[in-house]
Amino acid sequence: MQNLQLTHKIELPELPVDTVSVTELPTELPENIGNSVGNSQTLAQSGGNSGNSISSPFAEVCNLLSQLTDSERQKLVEMLTQPKTVEAKKGLRVRYIGTKYAEQLAGLELVVDAISKYKEITCLKPDGSFTTWLNPKDLEVAD
Q1: Of 11, 81, 89, 121, whose Cβ has the fewest other Cβ atoms within 10 Å?
Q2: Residue 28 in contact with residue 49, Cβ under 8 Å?
Q3: Torsions phi, psi of 55, nearest 5?
């Protein structure tokens, strides 16, 4: 049996990397002093020094992501979106995700039956009939 690789497609939401930032609480609040019209009352607001900053693994990751260069961001996107591959073998349950035979095979769970020397796959349909030879790139491993 030949070693063929099927693509297990993974969709990831795009990360708004450019807008990710970590906001820390100010260590001191601003002091506002002013006079109201018509009276000599002084208004004042002062704040303490909390010294506590937001610290969590998620906040740290967000902070690090915001510091990546464009090329580092691109490498991260490529790394996170690379599809997993699974070795195609007889009996593997798959779904057709291509377009050529979508009308006939959409929504069906297929079972790999044979792999040709040209790296094409034929599958068994639920009704017991066989598919034509399919391109492995058009198949996705069924969950």
Answers
A1: 11
A2: yes
A3: -135, 110
| Gap between the Cα atoms of 123 and 131, Å rounded | 5
Q: Which helix (H) or strand (E) covers residue 122, if one does?
A: strand 121-124
How far is residue 24's CA from residue 1's CA, in Å, rounded to a whole number?
58
| Distant-in-sequence, close-in-space partners of 112: CB < 8 Å, separation ≥ 6 | 88, 89, 90, 91, 92, 93, 94, 121, 123
Residue with tokens 């002091």: 31
CA–CA separation, 43 and 129 (whole Å): 85
Residues 6+ apart with CB under 8 A from 35: 41, 42, 43
* Cα–Cα distance measured from residue 106 to residue 103, given in angstroms and rounded to the nearest whole number: 6
Q: What is the pLDDT of residues 64-100, one digit of tens each?
A: 888 989 999 888 888 887 766 667 899 999 999 999 9
Distance CA 63, CA 30 (A): 25
Q: The pTM is what?
A: 0.45
